[in-house]
Design the sequence.
């Protein structure tokens, strides 16, 4: 399964996200049991604590996280144009300026050490190469800057069987009904089961040059928030 998923990390992924852009927010609500809004608030609070001047939200998607960060300059980057159009619509509707650019996370059009904080929500598991992508995120951070990665993970504890069943079975069925694109809604939950998490993810962040790396499990491990500082 892991190899099959890796083979999709290219134009197929971009096309898949383009097809479901208009329903992507719904997918996140279903996958997260409606908790993704509160998870983003946790990210926003940690961003605010650093008092950044410039924030880059990579894999910004429809812009939910970027638009929730206030009081600073925020840029959004994504490799999928339909996603960016959704983000632009939200920005315009909320009368909020959100500079957006089309960019692959593995080759960002930002200078070295040019931002104070980089955020990624539900995006790193779709990187074509996790190690290269994390190094690229670290590259654009100034020394002392913070990387915050919010990502789905595998549940732990007494509720793990139920939560795992939900993630494997409910999103594909809801996605097939709502969007008519069963492939996308099958791939996204399946990618969670094969992606690095916990200590493995922390080690990948450390290998990318980040220090003081920590992981916070959310909602029984349905998601994890990883944070590290550019050395």
Sequence:
């Amino acid at each position: 399964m892991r190899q099959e998923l890796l083979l999709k990390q290219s134009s197929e992924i971009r096309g898949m996200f383009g097809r479901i852009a208009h329903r992507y927010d719904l997918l996140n609500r279903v996958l997260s049991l409606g908790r993704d809004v509160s998870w983003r608030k946790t990210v926003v609070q940690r961003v605010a604590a650093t008092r950044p001047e410039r924030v880059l939200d990579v894999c910004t998607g429809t812009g939910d996280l970027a638009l929730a960060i206030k009081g600073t300059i925020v840029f959004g980057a994504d490799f999928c144009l339909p996603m960016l159009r959704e983000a632009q619509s939200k920005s315009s509707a909320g009368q909020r300026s959100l500079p957006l650019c089309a960019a692959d996370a593995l080759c960002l059009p930002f200078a070295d050490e040019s931002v104070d904080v980089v955020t990624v929500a539900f995006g790193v598991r779709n990187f074509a190469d996790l190690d290269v992508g994390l190094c690229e995120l670290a590259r654009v951070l100034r020394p002392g800057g913070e990387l915050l990665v919010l990502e789905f993970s595998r549940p732990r504890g007494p509720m793990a069987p139920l939560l795992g069943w939900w993630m494997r079975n409910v999103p594909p069925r809801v996605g097939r009904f709502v969007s008519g694109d069963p492939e996308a809604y099958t791939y996204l939950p399946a990618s969670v089961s094969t992606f690095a998490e916990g200590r493995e993810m922390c080690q990948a962040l450390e290998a990318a040059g980040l220090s003081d790396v920590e992981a916070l499990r959310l909602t029984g491990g349905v998601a994890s928030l990883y944070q590290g500082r550019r050395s």
Q: What stands out?
A: Residues 91 and 98 are 6 Å apart (CA to CA). The two ends are 35 Å apart (CA to CA). The chain has one domain: 2-230.
